[in-house]
Amino acid sequence: MNLALINIKQLVAVSTDGNRIKAKEDMRELGIIENAAVLIENGVITWVGRMEELSMGSLKDTEVLDCLDNVVMPGFVDSHTHLLFAGSREDEFALRSQGVTYREIAARGGGILNTVKHVRQATKKELKKNARQWLSAMLQQGTTTVEIKSGYGLDTQSEIKMLEAINELNKEEVMAVVPTFLGAHAVPPEFKDQKADYVETITNTMIPYVSSKKLALFCDVFCEQGYFDVEDSRVILTQAKQFGLHVKLHAEEFSSSGGAELAASLGAVSADHLEHITEKGIQALLKAGVVATLLPGVSFFLNHQYAPARKLIDAGVTVAIATDFNPGSCMSYSMPLMMTIACTHMGMTPEEVITASTLNAAAALNLSHELGSITVGKKADMIVLDIPNYTYLPYHFGENHVVKVVKDGVVLEC
Ligand code: NIG
Ligand code: FE
């Protein structure tokens, strides 16, 4: 099936040369084409150029989407979410509004373990039903690829239930879903004071099973005081690599622990959070080519310190942004909202947040060879926005500007 997008007032290609990541000043080069058109064959972009270069006669047997002088950009890649969950945690939100901290709530048995109770009780079908709602709302708001982590099961059976649900969603839904195994999200209650035994369960039972059934592409660990320390994280992720999984890390969220250096030494694809990353950590990520995935919604929602986006970008680290959508630390899946927060609170420019939400976010999932820019040869995942120019997107926040979504070359009814 062929598709043509015509009458695009401003096309935001993000990359024109097929490069797989962007850093430094390059993050601000969006490959803008005014009065543009795009041609797609069998879900793949075959031509990008100006309207006047397009011969309308060549559009026979082609579905035409008139973009009505709107803006077109790549679909957003949300490279860090925990969107498969049951229950909700507005009670914790209310407590935080009275000054109780995320850590205090976790110490009282709330936090991640609160959601674990609900997820263990839920069936796979119930989990998928919740997730489907989120996925279709995300698609309508412009996200076309999403990573989903396990990590609210924390026993072998429940972690497998989560990963099977995530893989089934990928097959059944229009959204592209990337599965990540996060058995090391918290120490479950039955292993309280026996963390080493839980780490052994992860390495000796969970990882071999997840790998043999191909249930995940990535393995992640929450590396933080009170959760898993740098040594635990090293042991788990080294085993994951041996079993063919790529690795990611929740690093330096509440404190500086050396998680960024660990991610670098393991050749992680991304290190995520980084609110408390040190100068040494920044240099380590840079040298190892690890993508720094920043999560503006978490600092906003928990009223925590923001990650030093400016320092990371100026140092040359490849920076991505994601929502971290989860019931505890960011109850939002809006990529445009994350962009606005990154501009207003983290010193990023509109150009940088667009690159960070598309091409660099695809790189955080090892997918930037096929996603994240409107470049010939890449998958046709694109969105049409009813805005006058791309800067307007993070500027006019709290509003859904997406009017059409093209996923794998098909125009969706949103
Ligand atoms: O990325 N930091 C660890 N995990 C999540 C929070 C999950 C939760 O509170 O349920 C995060 O912020
Ligand atoms: Fe997270």
Task: Describe the overall structure.
The structure is a single chain. The chain has two domains: 2-74 and 373-413, Urease, subunit C, domain 1, CATH 2.30.40; 77-363, Metal-dependent hydrolases (TIM Barrel, Alpha-Beta Barrel). It is 36% helix and 22% strand. The chain has helices spanning 90-97, 102-107, 112-121, 124-140, 156-172, 195-212, 230-242, 259-266, 279-288, 296-302, 309-315, 335-346, 350-357, 359-363, 392-395; strands at 2-12, 32-41, 44-50, 62-74, 76-78, 143-149, 176-184, 218-221, 246-251, 270-273, 291-294, 319-321, 382-385, 402-407, 410-411. β2 and β3 (44-50) form a beta hairpin. The chain is globular, with a radius of gyration of 21 Å. The chain binds N-(iminomethyl)-L-glutamic acid and fe (iii) ion (FE). N-(iminomethyl)-L-glutamic acid binds next to α3.
